[in-house]
Amino acid sequence: QVQLVESGGGLVQAGGSLRLSCTASGRTFSSYAMSWFRQAPGKEREFVAGIRGSTANTYYADSVKGRFTISRDNAKNTVYLQMNSLKPEDTAVYYCAAPRFETALILTTQKGYHYWGQGTQVTVSS
Length: 126
Known about the structure:
By secondary structure, the protein is mostly beta strands. It has strands spanning 3-7, 10-13, 18-25, 34-39, 46-51, 58-60, 68-73, 78-83, 92-98, 115-116, 120-125. The strands form two sheets. Strands 2, 4, 5, 6, 9, 10 and 11 form a seven-stranded mixed β-sheet that branches.
Protein backbone atom coordinates (compact mmCIF):
# COMPACT_ATOMS: atom_id res chain seq x y z
CA GLN A 1 0.00 0.00 0.00
CA VAL A 2 1.44 3.33 -1.09
CA GLN A 3 1.57 6.09 1.49
CA LEU A 4 2.87 9.64 1.34
CA VAL A 5 3.50 11.30 4.69
CA GLU A 6 4.22 15.02 4.94
CA SER A 7 5.85 16.76 7.87
CA GLY A 8 7.46 20.07 8.72
CA GLY A 9 4.54 22.45 8.68
CA GLY A 10 3.90 25.00 11.40
CA LEU A 11 3.44 28.64 12.32
CA VAL A 12 6.04 31.14 11.15
CA GLN A 13 6.29 34.89 10.86
CA ALA A 14 6.38 36.60 7.50
CA GLY A 15 9.88 36.48 6.08
CA GLY A 16 10.65 33.23 7.85
CA SER A 17 11.41 29.77 6.50
CA LEU A 18 10.09 26.24 6.76
CA ARG A 19 11.17 22.94 5.25
CA LEU A 20 8.53 20.39 4.38
CA SER A 21 9.27 16.70 3.87
CA CYS A 22 7.29 14.03 2.09
CA THR A 23 8.33 10.43 2.64
CA ALA A 24 6.87 7.69 0.48
CA SER A 25 6.41 4.05 1.38
CA GLY A 26 5.04 1.04 -0.44
CA ARG A 27 6.72 1.93 -3.72
CA THR A 28 9.97 3.43 -4.92
CA PHE A 29 9.32 6.79 -6.58
CA SER A 30 12.87 7.59 -7.65
CA SER A 31 11.92 7.63 -11.36
CA TYR A 32 8.60 9.42 -10.87
CA ALA A 33 8.04 13.14 -11.15
CA MET A 34 6.55 14.32 -7.86
CA SER A 35 4.99 17.58 -6.82
CA TRP A 36 3.75 19.78 -4.03
CA PHE A 37 0.32 21.38 -4.07
CA ARG A 38 -1.38 23.67 -1.59
CA GLN A 39 -4.92 24.60 -0.66
CA ALA A 40 -5.89 27.76 1.17
CA PRO A 41 -9.28 28.11 2.89
CA GLY A 42 -12.02 28.68 0.35
CA LYS A 43 -9.69 28.18 -2.60
CA GLU A 44 -8.96 25.38 -4.99
CA ARG A 45 -5.89 23.22 -4.59
CA GLU A 46 -3.06 24.66 -6.66
CA PHE A 47 0.27 23.46 -7.97
CA VAL A 48 3.34 24.78 -6.15
CA ALA A 49 6.41 22.92 -7.40
CA GLY A 50 7.42 19.71 -9.13
CA ILE A 51 10.58 17.70 -9.62
CA ARG A 52 11.50 15.02 -12.11
CA GLY A 53 12.87 11.69 -11.03
CA SER A 54 16.17 10.88 -12.67
CA THR A 55 17.20 14.36 -13.85
CA ALA A 56 15.80 16.27 -10.85
CA ASN A 57 14.70 19.08 -13.15
CA THR A 58 12.29 21.37 -11.36
CA TYR A 59 9.31 23.57 -12.17
CA TYR A 60 7.61 26.19 -10.01
CA ALA A 61 4.44 28.20 -9.89
CA ASP A 62 5.15 31.88 -10.56
CA SER A 63 3.92 32.78 -7.08
CA VAL A 64 6.75 30.87 -5.37
CA LYS A 65 9.54 31.09 -7.93
CA GLY A 66 12.75 32.36 -6.34
CA ARG A 67 11.48 31.69 -2.80
CA PHE A 68 10.75 27.94 -2.73
CA THR A 69 13.06 25.09 -3.67
CA ILE A 70 11.96 21.53 -4.30
CA SER A 71 14.49 18.72 -3.99
CA ARG A 72 14.57 14.98 -3.47
CA ASP A 73 16.64 12.25 -1.87
CA ASN A 74 15.89 9.09 -3.81
CA ALA A 75 17.80 6.95 -1.34
CA LYS A 76 15.27 8.02 1.30
CA ASN A 77 12.27 8.05 -1.08
CA THR A 78 11.70 11.60 0.15
CA VAL A 79 10.86 14.91 -1.48
CA TYR A 80 11.45 18.26 0.22
CA LEU A 81 10.11 21.77 -0.13
CA GLN A 82 12.30 24.50 1.27
CA MET A 83 10.22 27.63 1.71
CA ASN A 84 11.98 30.94 2.29
CA SER A 85 10.76 34.54 2.50
CA LEU A 86 7.32 33.28 3.45
CA LYS A 87 4.33 35.55 3.03
CA PRO A 88 0.89 35.48 4.68
CA GLU A 89 -0.57 34.46 1.30
CA ASP A 90 1.47 31.25 1.50
CA THR A 91 -0.78 30.10 4.33
CA ALA A 92 -2.37 26.82 3.27
CA VAL A 93 -2.40 23.09 3.74
CA TYR A 94 0.48 21.68 1.69
CA TYR A 95 0.16 18.30 0.01
CA CYS A 96 2.67 15.99 -1.57
CA ALA A 97 1.52 14.16 -4.71
CA ALA A 98 2.73 11.31 -6.87
CA PRO A 99 1.35 9.90 -10.13
CA ARG A 100 0.01 6.38 -10.46
CA PHE A 101 2.47 5.42 -13.16
CA GLU A 102 6.09 6.31 -13.71
CA THR A 103 6.44 9.55 -15.64
CA ALA A 104 9.03 12.21 -16.25
CA LEU A 105 6.36 14.84 -16.81
CA ILE A 106 5.74 17.41 -14.11
CA LEU A 107 1.97 17.75 -14.24
CA THR A 108 0.45 20.89 -12.78
CA THR A 109 -3.14 19.75 -12.33
CA GLN A 110 -4.58 17.54 -9.60
CA LYS A 111 -5.89 15.07 -12.18
CA GLY A 112 -2.34 14.04 -12.98
CA TYR A 113 -1.79 12.59 -9.52
CA HIS A 114 -3.12 9.46 -7.89
CA TYR A 115 -1.37 9.38 -4.54
CA TRP A 116 -1.69 12.18 -2.00
CA GLY A 117 -0.42 12.77 1.47
CA GLN A 118 -2.64 13.85 4.33
CA GLY A 119 -1.35 17.41 4.17
CA THR A 120 0.57 19.63 6.55
CA GLN A 121 -0.59 23.05 7.69
CA VAL A 122 1.59 26.08 7.03
CA THR A 123 0.52 29.33 8.65
CA VAL A 124 2.39 32.57 8.01
CA SER A 125 1.57 35.47 10.32
CA SER A 126 2.01 39.09 9.29
